[in-house]
From TrEMBL:
Record-level GO cellular component terms: cytoplasm
Residues passing through the membrane, by range: none
Name of the protein: Glucose-6-phosphate 1-epimerase
Highest rank taxon of the organism: Eukaryota
InterPro entries according to UniProt: Aldose_1/G6P_1-epimerase, Gal_mutarotase_sf_dom, GH-type_carb-bd
Molecular-function GO terms, alphabetical: carbohydrate binding; glucose-6-phosphate 1-epimerase activity
GO biological process, one term: carbohydrate metabolic process
SUPFAM superfamilies: Galactose mutarotase-like (SSF74650)
Upper lineage: Eukaryota, Fungi, Fungi incertae sedis, Zoopagomycota, Kickxellomycotina
Species, as recorded: Smittium culicis
Pfam family, one: Aldose_epim
Length: 225
């Protein structure tokens, strides 16, 4: 699979484009290691705001930003420049890897630890797999929050159904942080929502009423606390 890179005047890779054999594609900016586009079966699957700034002056709004190391400010990973480690082709697709490590700025902040963040992106013709590995390079235990803050695109938000959240507890940020639990299945988005689910299941599906396509979200790794 072809891999295209955009390099600035100093020789630093700023953008990486993974291209599949039959039309799948993925765009990753090294600013924040943010995935801004994922095309599968001829359709864009990620939402990127029209107000998104991609010149490196601020965090990119949309796509799949990397949140590390603390909420609610989302941390420094999404505004840092990551190193592109290269790519590797396989029979099923293409892997790309990105690295972020401590800097003088992070070491002088309120979180002065040595670490390595490795983001792995795997593009196949029908799926996109994203992994984040945190390595503690320090001599003490470290605490952090991490998140792949995925913005999925939908053709009609008012007809979008989420399956798999029934019985899950969540915090409703619109209602001032009140605790609630879902009982509906599927959950239909009918108004503006801002919820944080605790211990959400590893498998969720997203579907728009009247459409045959289903997007499956499958996660594993760090546990909620």
């Amino acid at each position: 699979m072809p891999v295209k890179t955009t390099v600035d005047d100093t020789g630093v890779v700023r953008k990486v484009v993974l291209v599949g054999a039959t039309g799948s594609a993925c765009v990753i900016y090294t600013h924040g290691a943010t995935i801004t586009s994922w095309i599968s079966q001829g359709k864009e699957r990620l939402f990127l705001s029209k107000q998104a700034v991609i010149n490196g002056s601020k965090a990119i709004r949309g796509g799949i930003p990397v949140v590390f190391r603390k909420l609610p400010q989302h941390g420094f990973a999404r505004t840092s420049t990551w190193e592109f480690l290269g790519h590797k082709d396989s029979i099923d697709g293409v892997h790309a890897r990105f690295l972020l490590r401590e800097t003088k700025e992070t070491m002088s902040s309120e979180w002065p630890y040595k670490f390595r963040l490795t983001l792995t992106v795997f593009l196949s013709e029908s799926s996109l797999k994203v992994g984040l590995m945190v390595t503690n390079m320090d001599e003490v235990n470290i605490e952090f929050t991490s998140l792949l803050h995925t913005y999925l695109r939908t053709t009609n938000i008012n007809d979008t159904e989420l399956v798999g959240l029934s019985g899950c507890k969540y915090v409703d940020k619109i209602l001032g942080g009140s605790d609630n639990s879902d009982k509906e299945e599927p959950l239909v988005v009918t108004k503006s929502e801002d919820r944080v689910y605790a211990n959400a299941p590893d498998l969720l599906t997203v579907k728009v009423k009247g459409e045959k396509e289903i997007i499956t979200v499958d996660k594993s790794g760090f546990k909620d606390y």
